[in-house]
Amino acid sequence: MFLRNLNPPKLLNETRLQDKALHKNIIEAIVITGFSREDIVLIPRITLIPTDEFKRIQFPLNVCFAMTINKS
Asked: Which GO MF term does the entry hold, naming one (predicted)?
C-alpha cells in the first residue's frame, strides 16, 4: 500500500500495488486499485527528512496482508 502521493492522480496515498520485481533502488509493481489499474509502475526510494539531524531514504510503501475497515 502506498504511503504518500507520489504521482497524482496515478499513485496516491493508499493505492494498492502488487510487487513484480524488487531492485536495489526501484520497485517494479502493478497497480491493483484506482484509475490506473493494471498499469506497471516504477517506485523509487525517496528521501524523508523529519529533522535537520538525520536523513532517511526508504520506499514509500507498507506491506499489507489484511486491512481494517478504516483503511479499506
From this structure: helicase activity
Three cell numbers written together for 31: 497497480
| AA identity, residue 72 | S
CB-based contact 36:10 (threshold 8 Å): yes
What's the first-to-final CA gap in the chain, in angstroms? Answer: 11
Query: Closest Cα to residue 27, out of 49, 55, 58, 71?
Result: 58
Contact, 15 vs 31, CB < 8 A?
yes
11 CB-near residues (< 8 Å, 6+ apart): 2, 5, 31, 36, 41, 43
pLDDT tens, position by position, 3-49: 777 777 778 777 888 888 988 888 898 988 877 788 898 888 877 66
